[in-house]
Amino acid sequence: MYENKRLGLLYCLPFVIGVALFKLFPFAMSFALSFTQFDLIEPPKYIGLENYREMMTTDKLFPKSLGVTLMFVALTVPLRLAAALMVAQVLNFKLKGINFFRSAFYLPSILGGSIAVSILWRFVFAKNGLVNQAMTALGAEPIMWLGDENYSMWTIVTLNVWQFGSSMVIFLAALQNVPTSLYEAAAMDGAGKTTVFFRITVPLITPVIFFNLIMQTVHAFQEFNGPYMVTEGGPLHSTYLLSLYIYDQSFKLFNLGYGTALSWVLFALVATLSAVAFYSSKYWVYYAGEKERS
Amino acid sequence: MSATTSATGVGAVDHYEVRKERLNTIIRYTLLITMGLIMLYPLFWLIGASFKSNAEIFTEVGFWPSRLDFTPYIKGWKTSTEYTFTRYFFNSFLIVIPRIIVTVISCVLVAYAFARFDFWGKKILFSIMVATMMLPQIVLRIPQYIMFQHFDMLDSYTPLILPSAFATDTFFVFMLVQFLRGIPRDMEEAAQMDGCNSLQMLWYIIVPLLKPAIISVIVFQFIWTMNDFIGPLIYLSSVDKYPVSLALKISIGATEEVEWGSVIAISVLALLPSVAVFFAAQKHFVDGVASTGLKG
Fold this sequence. Notes:
The complex is a heterodimer.
Chain A: H1 5-33, E1 36-37, E2 45-46, H2 50-56, H3 61-91, H4 98-111, H5 115-124, H6 130-137, H7 152-161, H8 165-176, H9 180-188, H10 193-204, H11 206-221, H12 225-231, H13 242-252, H14 256-284
Chain B: H1 7-49, H2 54-57, H3 71-78, H4 85-116, H5 122-134, H6 137-150, H7 158-161, H8 170-181, H9 186-193, H10 198-227, H11 230-235, H12 244-253, H13 260-294
Helix pairs in contact in B: 3-13, 4-8, 4-10, 5-8, 8-10, 8-13, 9-10, 10-13, 12-13
């Protein structure tokens, strides 16, 4: 029965239609639209590379937004993965109540994307908010997190790093799969904890690090709720991520041609970074069975 | 250790090891509890603050309110719009429930095809599926908007639900495929000998086996759809169709003098459904998340 090729395709049909209609067609269409001027009322007008030229020359907001986005991704992804791996490592132990801790650390990932938590974050970083009160108690000067362009980025970065739980559970499962015999052998050879972690644990879980790295990067480039609700892109556009700029251009100013061009720049960035990651993966990602054991 | 280690020597090492182990455990617990408290404190604070007065919210860092006053809840629920949150919660469920149903049906069918059948173009289709998991949704948003405008479906829930009916939430398909691949085919072979057709097979064998993974799909789709903000923001324009996420957003912008107590109270209520679903299914679901990252 499973060899019945028509039956298989029949079950797969929803996906074939869906991917064509809602993914591939829009994908091609957005590429085409990025070479046009389009406001939803008049039909799209072909203007060649004008949108891209505008980004590179007259549009002062684009380089700002691009820089802010890269900064956001460069801060969020490593911090989030490091936190996830660190907590997973602490959790990977014969521990009573491991499920409780796992769920507790996972909870922010569940709620973090909601508008309610974005509102909460405004209080966390308000002038008299939790962070400043804690800092005052520790003897530090309070900071105008939401009002100072030098610090505002941290409000949305922490909101994202706070949600490390989803990566953590994946790391934890990977850590639990590392054979204990390897640890025992290393201990016999007198290897210290740090050595064991970097020479045995990390190499063995590189496939999972790779998976998390890609997924988190793709995710971080699209972050919207945090900057939209917590900082509203400000102050002085210091948290004006590309996703916000694309939204404003497309759905507020109705420059849909320009909006799609911006989104293609974002896509090109994500695609390039993913390609680099995939290409480099053969040098640092370890797949059991493919290479000889070291 | 040399081979001549005496019995007492072993005992001493064991004793030292036990103490070291115990210290290790204490350090780990301290670390975990401290981190857990810091991480969850904002959420506790939110609950406490929902009972506080406007003045107290901005001065009181402790989460314990000085009184248990439900006025913020009552005021917040009423909102400054012409609808109450009863309406907005109802709207949210009008989006979430149909979306979950169509997601589960379409994703299970497609996952069944990918995990079990052999058909033309399967390899390419599977690669496309994995690739779309990494395709930023942001690139597709504008064309999708234009399409739905063209079909006259703006300001309705259709754009939020319809794509899910075609297994476009590929993350779920991937998760189900991975899960199904891990299940041996013995039962299916036996059922086939008994003359089961593929639809019966799916319903009586595959779906029960997939149950834990299906629960993960339901929980994820529930929470993600409840949290979804940009979708409703783009597609919905009449206030009477707003889901909770959008209503919360306008509750801040509606008046000059924001009743923060009410906003916080409603935020707590807005989080409740997701928290409830999470705790009801946490075991299945956290395991499910973990396994998708590993296999494959």
